[in-house]
Predict the structure.
Amino acid sequence: PFNSRLIAGLGGDDITVAHKIGVYGQVTQSDCGIFYVEKRNYILCAMVNGPDNAETNSKIKEISNLTYQYVKNL
């Protein structure tokens, strides 16, 4: 049910992701995952400072999207 971070950055593409979110109090938010992309599997761990809210989720989503677009276009 935690689809508002790394997975949200994929833009709706049908990609399998095994991931685990992390929270350190209201100080640090993270999401680390293995992305199973055809011929280009990769691992990404994104961590941001801040409380668990829409802003920190959005930052992790953006990091995921930028990484996915880069890998997809290699």
